[in-house]
Amino acid sequence: MKKLNLTFIKNLTLNKADKIFKKLPEEGQEKQIIPFLLNKQIKGAIALACATTLILSGSYSLDYLDSHENNVFSTDSFSILADGKELCKIRDLEQLDTALEELEYDLEEKHQHDLSIENNFQIEPSKAKDKEIISGEELYNILAENASYSILADAIKVDGNQVGVVNSELEAKNVVEKVKNYFTQNYDKESVIEVNTKEKVEISQIKASNTDIQAAEELANYIIKGTDEEQKYVVEEGDTYWTIAEYFNMSLDELISANPSSDSENIQIGEELNLVVPKPFINVQVKRKVTQEEKMPFETEYQYVSYMYNDEEVVERSGKYGISEIEAIITEQNGIQIAKETISESVISEPTTKIVTTGTQDPPPRIGTGTFINPLPGAMISSRFGSRSGGFHRGIDLAKATGSSIKATDGGTVISAGWDGSYGYSILINHGGGYSSRYAHCSDMYVSAGDKVYQGQIIAAVGSTGVSTGPHLHFEIMKYGSVVNPASYIY
Ligand SMILES: [Zn+2]
């Protein structure tokens, strides 16, 4: 069989050469040249015939003829097209599914991510001979070359607005949990009844490019802060929260809420403070059951006596706050209480009523009377007016226990009440008519410069402030600025 075909081809080729040979003289070429040309043409034709024969003799076989016979018939197939252009033909559509599945799996392995093959392949019924049908491996390679795909990721939407994209649904859920944890981290877990978000939070799978995908941690921080803006300040010597807030035009509360992990009362030099006030995309509302102690206010009871003026008061018993324990359900949004519902209240200790004695008499006019009374009745004179151990004592010293009430020797206007060098806490009163009086070494003062006082009004308490050897009142009376002996005036 091999030989038979070989002969046939050989004959055909020689025939062609023969035609060329016969044709050439007819064109009227010169005789001398023609033989040369003819010879060359014939040799070339023969060489061609031999080469063809060699190739044919190599490929001719029984197998060849078997498939050659089948190729005659085209049977049902499917053409796979991309953008209208035929890529290949297959017999069985299942082959396509298998190859696509494999390709998706391999791409996911390669990218370590969920993917979606954007299948723009069309399938059309067609006819094909067996030799036109491609193998599974070839199909895979063709699809791999022509496939376009997108990454499947998960978006977090807050009230319908997308705030970010992460790798997977699990990561998205973790982001929401991180945000919730941020606002509940300081709570006693057992007290928490429920944690909700004020906004509707949705997680949905989307097609994304890998550059859209954020790290979960990064997205959680972005949602908490509501911005990816960063502005920091490094604390310097002498800074306080108050001065920093004022400098950056923020309220103190804003600066505190921007730095939940910093101690606002005790900032450290070199500490970094965040200056961007959080406006979280997700507001976390936490309902908690808490038990709290609360202060109960006390009442004040007055006792009236006729021997006191109605602007005088003596505290007989001080009041004390009571304590009650309340059980309440509180709702906090981002750590700030927005609702409170008291469930029960029990008194731990009752408050103590404050008891005050006051007078019924109207006080005398707050002007000088021209007479002077003893400012510290019942006191012992410990040092007299005048010459004293080489010096001059400008007043009299009246010794009495610390805290004893000092009265104004006459009515008038307070000129000064404050620290006055060696006098310690000291009060000076102008009585009119050229007279004034001084009260020194006080432990406490009840009047201020400009106050009008009446004769006998309690203005200070005995002390030992300034240069003093023990609790006493150093008392002076001055006439036109010069000291006089108080003992000559008081009765
Ligand atoms: Zn004195």
Description:
The protein is an alpha+beta fold and 491 residues long. It folds into six domains: 2-60; 75-146, no CATH class; 149-189 and 199-226, no CATH class; 230-277, Membrane-bound Lytic Murein Transglycosylase D, Chain A; 286-358, Resuscitation-promoting factor rpfb (Resuscitation-promoting factor rpfb fold); 365-488, Glucose Permease (Domain IIA) (Distorted Sandwich). The protein is 26% helix and 38% strand. The protein contains nine helices and 29 strands. The chain has helices at residues 2-23, 33-59, 62-70, 93-111, 136-146, 169-184, 216-225, 241-247, 252-258, and strands at residues 75-82, 85-90, 115-118, 121-128, 148-158, 161-166, 192-197, 201-208, 232-234, 272-274, 284-296, 300-309, 313-317, 322-333, 336-349, 354-361, 380-383, 386-388, 391-393, 396-399, 405-407, 412-419, 425-432, 435-442, 444-445, 452-453, 458-461, 472-479, 482-484. Strands 17, 20, 22, 23, 24, 26, 28 and 29 form an eight-stranded antiparallel β-sheet that branches. Helix 1 packs antiparallel against helix 2, helix 4 (93-111) packs across helix 5 and helix 8 (241-247) packs across helix 9. It starts with a helix and ends in a 7-residue tail after the last strand. The model is unreliable at 1-69 (pLDDT under 50). The protein binds zinc ion (ZN). The site of zinc ion has 5 residues, from loops.
